[in-house]
């Protein structure tokens, strides 16, 4: 059966209609979301290095109708396998459960995880259909996020070679993205399965930060989490996502406070006007005098 007809329109993820199907999974999966360029790729590789967690490259199956070819490209599964799961799943949540379980079993790990920035917009859906899930929100200084978003992506991978791009986005759009994504995540504060990780703490205090994460997930600590850059895995092939290739390199502090180098006085004022209050709320500034 063609994959395009396997999932009825009524079960597709649509934030306007909220029609996702009725299946409820008891899996305690890990779902990661954030504003893009917040460090989620580094975080997911570190978490994936733990012997209990299988956290591969983003599937986007929580945020859109499953794209069979994307899943084939990113996860090394066959098109026939994806089509069969689509054709025999009750709805989107049932497909997610079965697909993610399969990936974890392939890695011989008991707990699956998914990382995609837009997951942040589907926290209500995730907790409704995966009540035992743990959602991890990665938060980063919005000024640094905006500087990174502005030039993202810097290159693409095509026909076996890296092609540089000259991306330059309006700063207003980048600021709006950071505010909207971050606010969506903060709205889930207080829910038992919700947890926040600040990028700055992750790179400056990696062991302390990741020990708390592993404890939150209910597992024992394993030093392989810190040796993530020494390990090999089928989940580390970044040829399909070269913009995140540095996530398999040792931790660097070079991206911290990059706004001090990259932002003009005009940029700073625009940010203060549009997002200064959120920056203060998150503890990255005490006032707008920066």
UniProtKB/TrEMBL annotation:
The keyword Transit peptide does not apply. Keywords: Transferase. Pfam families: Sulfotransfer_3 (PF13469). SUPFAM superfamilies: P-loop containing nucleoside triphosphate hydrolases. GO terms for molecular function: protein-tyrosine sulfotransferase activity. InterPro entries: P-loop_NTPase, TPST-like. Transmembrane segments: none annotated. It comes from the Bacteria. The keyword Flavoprotein does not apply. PANTHER family: PROTEIN-TYROSINE SULFOTRANSFERASE, PROTEIN-TYROSINE SULFOTRANSFERASE 2. This is Sulfotransferase domain protein. The lineage of its organism: Bacteria, Pseudomonadati, Planctomycetota, Planctomycetia, Planctomycetales.
